[in-house]
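Sequence in, structure out. First:
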Amino acid sequence: MERLKAMIPEGRITLVMYVRNAASFLRSYTNQMKKHPMPAMIEEDSFAYTGQDSWLLDFDARLSSFRSVFGAQNVIALDYEQELKRAGSVIPSFLHVLGVASHFRPQDRERFFLNRTPSVWKLRRSRLGQLRRRRCQRVWRRLLI
C-alpha cells in the first residue's frame, strides 16, 4: 500500500470501499474469478483465493489498512446492499462521493445505472446481434441488386 501511496502526488486520495454481505461478496467474486485464467497454485494470501476463510472477507482489516496508510479521513466505507436498495446501483452514491451527482438526471440513473443480471445482458447482446445481422443482410442485398 505504501507503493500505491507513493504513486499519488502528495498523497492526495480518497478511497471508496463498498462493504458487502460476506457470503454474497464471495459468491459474486468467485463467479467473476472463474471468467479469468488463474494460477495453477493459489496461496491463501492470493487475490484469487476464494475459500471461506479468505482475507478478502475481512473488510474491517482491509479498511483498517487503508486508513492507517492514507488516513481515516481519506477512506469512505459504504454499505453495498443499502445502496442497492436505495438506488438500484452503487453508481449514484459513487457519483455523489466524486461530487458530480448533480450533473446526472434521475432518468439517467433509471436507464443506465441499475445492476443487471448476466442473463439480461446476454439476452440484450443476442438481440442486438440479430438486429446487426439483419441490417447487414439488407445492406448486402442492396449492394448486390
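Second:
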Amino acid sequence: MKYRKYICAGGGKKVYINQKKAGVILSYVGQFAKILISIIYTPIMLRLLGQSEYGLYQLVYSVVSYLSLLSLGFSSSYMRFYSRYKAQKDEDGVARLNGMFLLIFAFGCMYFMWLCDVGEYQGNFW
C-alpha cells in the first residue's frame, strides 16, 4: 500500500496518511465548501439581482449544466489523446482526433435537431 507523507505544522512531526483516505477527506471538504459557498452566495445574489432576475439566472445555469452533460465525458478523453499525440509530435494523429470529434458532435447535433423536428410535427413536442 502506498503512503503519502504529510508534515504536521506542530513540531515538524511526520504523519503518514493513506492516499484513499486523503482523497475521501478532500472530497468531503470540497462538498462542504460548495454547500457553504452556496449558502453565503444565494442571499447576496438575491439582493443584487432581485427575485425574478435571480430566477432567470438559475434557469439559465441549470440549462447550461444539463447541456454540459451532453458532452458525455468526451472532453477528458479528447484532452488525454490530444496530449498524447502532441507529446509524440504526431500532427496527423491530432488532425484525425479533431476530425473524429467534429464528426461525433456534428452527428449528435443533427440527431438532436431531427429529434426536435419529429416531435414538433407529431404534436407532442417535449
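Remark: The mean pLDDT is 81.
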